[in-house]
């Protein structure tokens, strides 16, 4: 049943999905001393984020500058990096003696894996007086009840589409069923238009497809239990792969999609849609601001619409269940009290409003900034997020890191014509056995 939910309830669904995969931890301690506990002590925070291009790059720097102006004892060394490169950098840094003071954090089972390094600060006490302002969604950045990060934006994945290309192909309404999506693909091909852009080079966009078929085929209880107990034994998981195979056989993607990046350059999957070279892309809400530096068309946003992943006939998934997650930040143990205070600043309504209005984020983590959303398509996304009965966190993020990576790799291989629907499930189970 698709029930209208209030914002706190909507955040709670994200929190549940992020939290179910958290394993029991016995984190090792950090024997080296942290920064001074004196909040007035001069300190420099090294900050890693994925806003490698404007507007994000400039906006994050301006936020650091403003915080420094208000807190002269706190300086920043801001080091933006492209998303894929950043994830690798963070993984390596957490194995070193000196990780960055602040770094991007996506929560869930991956955060739980990182906490075991002993290098991520427990900010429970520092955030206890204000973290409830973000709603229950903030628990997605907690492990065993302790806060290890703070979200700054929430996400949901769906279809971005070109209204002008749909019109050219005679598609009068966004697809709501797989039959309608297949019909749209056929109509677009008949007009010589690439139906769907896919950044297969980065693997994670492939996983969105399998994941959505999975949450359409599998009951909500099955999905939750699989993520919590790490047992993928229900036949619905294989059925999801069979659905994906049937869709891949229609050849819905652009030529050479396996070598196409998701967000880097005009030739990326995001760039193809932004420049009218493809009609659709299954991506997160972040795609609208991501497209800004990828096209010279300043009116591109007016040509875009958004719709949810279609229903799958016979599927046992709860209608309206969405795939999503969020972005946040964690502090290194050595960062000191200034770091947690800065995360509070980032989560405040004025800063969250600035992030939305500057197109740095799409959907704010603080409900008090939702009114800042002005783009009609993003309002549609926010409304869908509000109504969703459950938000399943991307599986590669919800699961322990090694398991999530193995699943992504198996799905990517499947897109490349290797493996089978059962092989994806087998890769998951093998990774669980070996973790």
Automatic annotation (TrEMBL):
The keyword Signal applies. Residues 1-29 form the signal peptide. It holds the Pfam family SBP_bac_1. The keyword Nucleotidyltransferase does not apply. It comes from the Bacteria. SUPFAM superfamilies: Periplasmic binding protein-like II. Keywords: Signal. This is Extracellular solute-binding protein.
């Amino acid at each position: 049943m698709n029930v209208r939910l209030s914002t706190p309830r909507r955040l709670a669904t994200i929190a549940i999905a992020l939290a179910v995969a958290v394993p029991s931890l016995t984190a090792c301690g950090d024997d080296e001393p942290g920064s001074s506990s004196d909040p007035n002590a001069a300190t420099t925070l090294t900050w890693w984020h994925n806003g490698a291009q404007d507007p994000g790059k400039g906006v994050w720097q301006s936020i650091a500058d403003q915080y420094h102006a208000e807190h002269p004892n706190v300086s920043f060394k801001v080091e933006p990096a492209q998303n894929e490169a950043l994830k690798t950098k963070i993984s390596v840094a957490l194995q070193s003696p000196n990780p960055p003071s602040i770094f991007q954090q996506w929560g869930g089972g991956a955060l739980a894996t990182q906490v075991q390094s002993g290098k991520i600060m427990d900010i429970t006490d520092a955030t206890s007086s204000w973290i409830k302002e973000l709603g229950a969604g903030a628990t997605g950045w907690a492990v065993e009840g302790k806060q290890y990060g703070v979200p700054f934006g929430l996400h949901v994945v769906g279809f971005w589409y070109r209204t002008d290309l749909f019109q050219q192909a005679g598609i009068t309404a966004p697809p709501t069923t797989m039959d309608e999506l297949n019909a749209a693909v056929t109509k677009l091909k008949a007009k010589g238009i690439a139906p769907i852009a896919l950044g297969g080079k980065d693997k994670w966009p492939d996983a969105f497809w399998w994941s959505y078929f999975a949450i359409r085929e599998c009951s909500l209880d099955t999905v939750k239990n699989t993520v919590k107990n790490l047992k993928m034994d229900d036949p619905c998981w294989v059925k999801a792969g069979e659905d994906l195979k049937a869709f891949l056989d229609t050849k819905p993607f652009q030529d050479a999609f396996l070598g196409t990046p998701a967000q880097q350059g005009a030739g990326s999957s995001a760039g193809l849609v932004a420049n009218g070279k493809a009609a659709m892309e299954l991506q997160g809400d972040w795609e609208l601001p991501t497209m800004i530096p990828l096209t010279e068309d300043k009116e591109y946003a007016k040509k875009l619409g958004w719709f949810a992943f279609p229903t799958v006939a016979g599927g046992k998934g709860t209608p309206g269940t969405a795939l999503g997650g969020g972005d946040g930040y964690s502090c290194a143990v050595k960062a000191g009290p200034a770091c947690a205070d800065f995360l509070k600043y980032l989560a405040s309504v004025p800063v969250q409003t600035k992030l939305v209005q500057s197109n740095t984020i799409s959907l704010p983590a603080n409900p008090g900034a939702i009114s800042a959303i002005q783009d009609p398509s993003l309002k549609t996304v926010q409304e869908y997020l509000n109504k969703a009965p459950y938000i399943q966190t991307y599986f590669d993020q919800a699961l322990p890191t090694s398991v999530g990576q193995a699943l992504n790799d198996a799905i990517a291989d499947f897109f490349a014509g290797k493996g089978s629907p059962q092989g994806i499930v087998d890769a998951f189970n093998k990774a669980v056995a070996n973790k």
